[in-house]
Specification:
Residues 3-101 form the Glycosyltransferase family 28 N-terminal domain. The protein contains 18 helices and 13 strands. The protein is an alpha/beta fold. The longest helix has 30 residues, at 155-184. It is globular. The two termini are 15 Å apart.
């Protein structure tokens, strides 16, 4: 079976799709994936065929405009700028999606590419399914991920917030979708494609985000997809010797990492972290992510350590607590390690996960734009008091964490669609003969 995965976004958006693609490839399927150009070479390390496309999300998120908007909490202004970036890159995205879908038996999209998947289904006659890394479908038990209020208390109000999100997202994306229809030579959509009715796989924990009663059985929550040790090694995630020695040399540190959310003033952030850790007599491990700490990062006191991309599953269990941006993947890794969190979210799912973790008693939330040394210190103190709850929730999440369930769902879709998988790799041949699939 040839599967086209239409991935798009920052590393947190791409990495789970790489994990899915890698598992499908291991099972003997052919996988082609669209990936933003700044992450294309990295994703290709997994052995997946990659189709690079614009925009460069690292360059966009690292721009002064994006960093300042995030630092000030101007979410709508940020999203408007992101929409313009998407519009400028639209032809590149269209071409990449078409290239990836050529000869595909199945197209799998994400929230950023769902309408594009419908274009391909209409033009090429290829089956289309969707995936998500956080709740994106109508729910009466909480408001949409863009609502400033997480729960509007009344079911109909929560559902209304999702309707507004659907309308706004379609209006923002319609010019891009119209152009894609024109390129494919098909009629433009007169109405918004009902992508929420397409069978989907949600790759996050139902222990943290419970299944809404409104969902049809066609939508499945399968848990966060942990990366295998082999895949992490191929992607360059490890524990550098210097970090390993530093971790062994003292007490469990506080982890600080904001992933693909660049820090507007790295020097000030380092100063704040140095101060609050020194005052509490604790050590701090700072994961740079997409932030550039420059020369300041080379002159840290002994109780601090700066690293780039590391193996979260190996490093976080050696930490005491985590201060992070609340991306889906980072939240999953922190929970699996049983750590209490301070989640400083900015956008979309980040604020949602912050709300859920706080509500479940496993951490506290502190909006990214409100961070000061005093506020961060107070939030960290409060989070550490929730260590027992975090360990209990983490144990449940870990027990339900899997590496293969999303791939199982994809293979079930294929069977339902009458797609005959071609088993080609030794691993897949062995699994097929031994599992009765």
């Amino acid at each position: 079976m040839r599967v086209a995965i239409l991935a798009h976004g920052s590393r947190g958006d791409i990495q789970p799709m790489v994990a899915l693609g890698d598992e499908l490839r291991r099972r003997g399927h052919s996988v082609v994936m669209t990936v933003n150009e700044n992450l294309a070479a990295w994703a290709a390390r997994a052995g997946i065929d990659v189709v690079p496309m614009k925009p460069d999300m690292s360059a966009f998120l690292g721009s002064d405009t994006a960093r300042n908007n995030m630092a000030r909490g101007k979410v709508l202004t940020f999203l408007k700028a992101l929409g313009l970036e998407e519009r400028e890159a639209n032809r590149s995205i269209i071409d990449a999606c078409i290239t990836a879908a050529e000869g595909a038996d199945l197209v799998i999209s994400t929230i950023m590419t769902a309408y594009r998947g419908e274009c391909l289904a209409k033009a090429l006659g290829v089956p289309h399914r969707t995936s998500s890394l956080y709740p994106v479908l109508d729910a009466g038990n909480h408001a949409s991920f863009l609502s400033p209020v997480r729960d509007l208390r009344l079911r109909w109000l929560n559902l209304a917030s999702w309707r507004l999100l659907d309308i706004g997202f379609w209006q923002e994306n319609k010019p891009n979708v119209d152009e894609m229809c024109d390129v494919l030579g098909i009629a433009r959509f007169k109405r918004r494609p009902r992508v929420e009715l397409i069978p989907s796989v949600a790759m996050y924990s139902g222990d943290v985000a419970s299944r809404p009663e409104e969902w049809h059985e066609r939508h499945e929550i399968v848990g966060w997809q942990a990366l295998s040790a082999d895949l992490r090694a191929r992607l360059g995630e490890d524990v550098p010797p210097g970090l390993d020695a530093w971790l062994d040399a003292g007490s469990a540190p506080i982890f600080f990492g904001f992933g693909s959310t660049p820090v507007a003033d790295p020097s000030a952030m380092l100063h704040d972290i140095a101060r609050l850790t020194r005052e509490r007599g604790v050590r701090g491990l700072i994961c740079a992510g997409w932030s550039d700490f420059g020369a300041d990062g080379a002159e840290l006191p002994d109780h601090l350590h700066l690293a780039n991309n590391v193996d979260f599953d190996a490093v976080l269990p050696r930490c005491r607590a985590a201060v992070h941006h609340g991306g889906s993947g980072t939240t999953a890794s922190v929970l699996r390690a049983g750590l209490p969190s301070v989640i400083a979210g900015v956008l979309a799912d980040q604020a949602y996960w912050a709300w859920r973790i706080e509500k479940l008693g496993a951490g506290v939330r502190l909006p990214f734009h409100k961070i000061t040394a005093d506020r961060l210190g107070a939030a960290l103190d409060a989070a550490l008091e929730r260590t027992a709850q975090a360990k209990e929730l983490g144990a449940r999440v870990s027990a339900n964490t899997v590496r293969t369930t999303a791939a199982d769902v994809v293979e079930r879709w294929a069977a339902e669609l009458g797609i005959q998988p071609e088993v080609t790799t030794p691993e897949a041949l062995g699994r097929s003969s031994g599992s009765g699939r």
